[in-house]
Amino acid sequence: MRKIISYFIKYPVAVNVMIIAFIAFGIIGALSMKSSFFPLVDSELISINLVYPGASPAEMEEGVVLKIEDNLKGIVGIDRVTSVSRENSASVTVEIIKGKNIDVVLADVKNAVDRVPSFPSGMEPAVISKIENIRPTISFTISGDNLPLTTLKQYARTVENDLRNIEGISQVSLSGFPLEEIEIAVRENDLRAFNLSFTEVANAVRSSNLLITGGNIKTDEEDYLIRASNRSYYGDELHNLIVRTESSGNIIRLKDIAVVKDTWSENPDRIHYNNNVAINITVSNTNSEDLLSSADKIKEYINKFNQQHDNVEINISSDASISLNQRTELLLTNGAMGILLVLFFLALFLNVRLAFWVAFGLPISFLGMFIFASQFGVTINVLSLFGMIIVIGILVDDGIVIGENIYHHYNDKGKSPIRAAIDGTMEVIPPVVSAIATTLIAFSTFFFLDGRIGNFFSEVSLIVMLTLSVSLIEALVILPAHVAHSLAMANSKKKQSRINKFFTKVNTTADGFLVSIRDRFYVPYLTFFLKHKILGFAIPLALLIFSVGAIGGGIVRTSFFPSIASDRININLKMPQGTNEKITDSIISIIEVAAWQVNEEYSKKQSGNQQVIQNIIKRIGPGTANGSLDINLLPGESRDFSSPEITNTIRDKVGKVYGVESLTFGSGGNFGGSPVAVSLLGNNIVELKAAKKELKEILENN
Predict the structure, then answer these.
(1) Which is it for the CA torsion 550, 556, 557, 560, positive or negative?
(2) Average of per-residue pLDDT across 370-394
(3) Residues 6 or more apart in contact with residue 494 via CB below 8 angstroms
(4) What is the number of H-type helices and E-type strands within the chain?
(5) How far apart are CA 146 and CA 157, in angstroms?
(6) What predicted TM-score, i.e. pTM, was given to this entire model?
């Protein structure tokens, strides 16, 4: 090690080449890193989606889901199977064991579903797929004053097509409207008049509405492809459909016996934005797409769209890039503050130029980290940025120790700059390396965590370990060479300028202050505890016992992750299955009115009389029993009230709601999940419902 350090100190050109390489490749690595909200992880989930029109949840459970679950038992690689049965549909989620090949398990799951002997007639084919890690980038609503849902859907489809044509955007989903249907209402009197049956009409529609290929005809000159392209997508295209041709030549068309019109499915799914009918559009990013660049392109498109249209407007309801940009700004701010603090305190107690070279190690360490992070597949996300923010506080510790010791060997022991750099570095290598090694070992424990926590926080660990490793190389190789050849060593014993005299006087005053603190406080206390070792051991032990007791006694409360407040309040209503859509709508609308009343109360107390609630998105569906409110608040930086306080006020304003299956009010959430989750397992649905009711009563009374 001494030879390596001596070489770079004696030949500073090699150090400069290394710095240039760090800067060049570091910038390239940083620019090549994609951005995402969370770290990119491989999928470990397989979904089985089942659709059976007209079936109740019990029928879906008994006739479909249980058969699939029985066939999935015993498949190698499956960790857990969960299922949810609803009206008309059900979903089965298969979680694989960590480290197993999901494609192999996916093939086994498909074979298991195919082995089910009999599904109910009328059920659509099961859709089995791997759940890709797709995360929302931006969600926005498109709405207008008194615009019908059909018109909004046309606008939404146009927006969808425009967004898909933008490079880097592939995942665009629309919600807020039920499926479109063509309703054919046959008139009974006309059927009797023409001596037709309902089955004849249905067969005529089925046989005439075709889009199929019929093979080909080969001739000596060319081949002809036979294709029946007669599919209709709108009701008015079916008016002239021929139901029957009589021997007399009379033609009976569909319009003669039925009313044909375009309508929406009876299974509701509707969204209202500030009481206006709206459609929600969500743009997500895959592992191969960049979040920040996609968000910028989408927002640019939204601004252009709003400028070109007067009767319809796009409003952003959630934007993941905001949090990512704020975290990046926090990192840059902390980095700048860290450099300034290092410069200030080292200049205060040592030397200005020495302080500069120590602080110079901070950007070099980050640039070196970017070189390797890009090779490990790390992205710019909230957790990797969190790791960078953490490591800022411990980056320059090794540089401070080495720089101060080199200066000590030169200034106090009278060695030459090169000799002082070599001896000063070699002397502190053991404590510096051991300090970095203990930190690396501490953060390496994140690699051994399982599940979502392990996948996410291992990236924090990787960022910290890479940055500290590069900082160690910088402190042992680059820093000594710079200090040895800097003016801090060359001018300390020469005639000094006024600036140098000023900082010398500052250094002398600061050194005197530290000596005074050392002699008056530190030395007496150290001497006392060295003489009374038992007391010196008893005090920290007592503090440890007090801390453990405070946690055990509930004085200091604990949580795996703190509840993170947000600028959005989510209210979810779930009614018993089979509840009429109008009842669900009426209850969620009452809650919406209460939310606007709370907005009036808090807006009067808000600074600048700003509206505390920016907008409310009401959704009915999917299904008749589900409703929700997404309440977007004034940004937290401008809001005088916390989101939990506003949430509790809305809950109190709403009061007790009877007849609901569940009604939840939430703002923010816990990263690790709910503090307590209880699952009741059993084959008897009656017993499960009774157990659920009893448990719910016990929890509410405690």
Answers:
(1) negative
(2) 84
(3) none
(4) 24, 19
(5) 19
(6) 0.74
